[in-house]
Amino acid sequence: MNKAIIMHSFLRLARPGTLMTLVMFVLVYPTALIAFISRLPSVSFDFEAFANLVFGPMMINVAAFTFVSSSIGNTKSLDDGEYLALLFSRPIFRWVYVVSKWLAGFALVVLVIGSQTIVFKTLLQLIGRGDQLSVGFIDVANIILNSLQITALVAMIFAFPSRIGAMLFAGLLYLSFAAPMMFNAIPDSALWFHGDLHNIVNSISGCLRSFTYAPIDLDPYFNSIQILWLPIITFASNLAIYIWIAVVVLNNREFFYTN
Amino acid sequence: MSQQTAFIQINNLSKTYGLFFKFRALTDINLNIHKGETFGLIGPNGAGKTTLMGCLLGLLKPSAGTILIDNKSVNEISVKALTGFMPERSNFDAWMIVENFLHYHHMLARQPESTANEDVTKALADVGLEPEVGKRLIRKLSRGMLQRLGLAQLLLGKPDLCFLDEPTSGMDPLGMSLVRELLFRWKQEGKTVVINSHHLDQVEKVCDRVAFIDNGKIRSIEELVPTAQTKQIFVIQWAKPYPNEDLVRKVAQDNQVECQSVSDGSARFLLTSKTQGSNLLRAFVGINTQIEQASYEHKDLVELFRRNNATQ
């Protein structure tokens, strides 16, 4: 890990544009959501679903893509990107850069989601509904693990040159979610090839989905006797594969220093 | 020079861009740069100078051939630790405050934290930036100031090997003379410098040797500063009465110097060592000839540049 790179990643938050997004994220979004909730009768409100809007995996994904994506391997925008040619003329191993960016990104996401959750909880308390949203140890652990995974995914995508990274990301989303959903909507009788085609496509898309989006939930591990190994293996292997790909890509990237 | 060990060794270096439509940016480059040498890369736009520098910095991967710096690969961390780089386009993190940016590069250059403040202040002073500039946002700096900042970040790593790409581009005359002074100082300190510049007069003043690059090939390498092994033209001009040609040729022969021509009170001699020049002067003074002027024949880079372009 490189202290300078980690500090620089945090300093990037102080840019006016990012700072404004941060305020929207941590302050404006919770306030708007709480203002909406305060108008609903408490009996009609599903707090389980609400928790997902606050610190669930989807929110972690949004935070990671918003605050970390431009920080890794981006050389396009002068204001937003970093001058990687100058950075890599310094005595820095590229794998150290990837790991430092990943861990800095992870800390940023945890910080953002954590602050947002605290603001939510405080505002809920103010309207007298604080007891309806509890944030326990398992929730905190889930935030940490899912942030670790999503920032590694972001590091992998953005280690590629920006266009290739965007195509890769869009391709993964399309093949994992959109294409199989569309395919499943086609009845068996309408397919030229009969048999287990739906199952085959679903298995492939399931594999891709577990690589693209596989949030972990520790709740079952604390509330059941049986340990589910598959999510743990998927989580660990995803982390390793994301970081490995990011390091290989960045090691092989060329930086034309007039970028 | 050739007997010295090369600090930078470039062997059969080629660089091709593109997967399908290949473009050859460098072809079979062979070059040795010695420790303590100030070496210039010159040539027209698109000649391949920037690509060559990119390969030397390990930012671009050669398609063929090898580059060794201090007998190590350019990608070794120990090589990068002794390298400083000043890019042509100062696309630094525009949102950062100058001092923070320099502190960041001080850390990246693996310099001790205890000397950070002192080194940053010194680097700013060395490039002629006022201390209050350190408190400004990078986006607020002028082009010339950005160039100076580029030099300052290079200085922070206390490099032994400096790569400078168009260091004086966008600088005012004061800035240009500052770069020249820095380059002279580095020469005295024994730093090896590779400089890529279109300002031929600047290159001429500071470089020991230059390579003319065009179409990705080295067309010629010229020595600008005479060394122990370099043959130099030495010109002597006399005041009237001029010594006669036979006498001039005899003195030259006695001092084992080749006399190339004698005409109108001046003569051109081909020297193989610096001491030959002083011996020759002493001999002419000894026979009571009145020397008006004596100098090495100046190599005009603009002329060399034209000549190299014309021969293609």
Quick structural summary:
The complex is a heterodimer of chains A (259) and B (312). Chain A is mostly helical. Chain A contains 11 helices and no strands.
What characteristics describe this protein?
heterodimer; A: 259 residues; mainly alpha; globular; B: 312 residues; alpha/beta; six-stranded mixed β-sheet; four-stranded antiparallel β-sheet; 10 helices; 14 strands
- Uncertain runs of chain A with pLDDT below 50, 5 residues or more? none
What percentage of the residues of chain B does DSSP assign to strands (E)? 25-35%
Widest β-sheet, arrangement of strands of chain B: 6-7-8-3-9-10
Based on DSSP secondary structure assignment, what is the total number of beta strands of chain A? Answer: 0
Radius of gyration of chain B: 23 Å
Q: What helical percentage do the residues of chain A reach?
A: 55-70%
Most extensive interface: A-B, 31 and 35 residues
Description:
The complex is a heterodimer of chains A (259) and B (312). Chain A is an all-alpha fold and 259 residues long. Chain A has 11 helices and no strands. Chain A is globular. The two termini of chain A are 26 Å apart. Chain B is an alpha/beta fold. In chain B, 34% of the residues lie in helices and 29% in strands. In chain B, strand 12 and strand 13 (266-271) form a beta hairpin. Chain B is globular, with a radius of gyration of 23 Å. The relative contact order of chain B is 0.13. The model of chain B has no long low-confidence stretch (mean pLDDT 87). Chains A and B meet through helix 1 and helix 5 of A and helix 1, helix 2 and helix 3 of B.
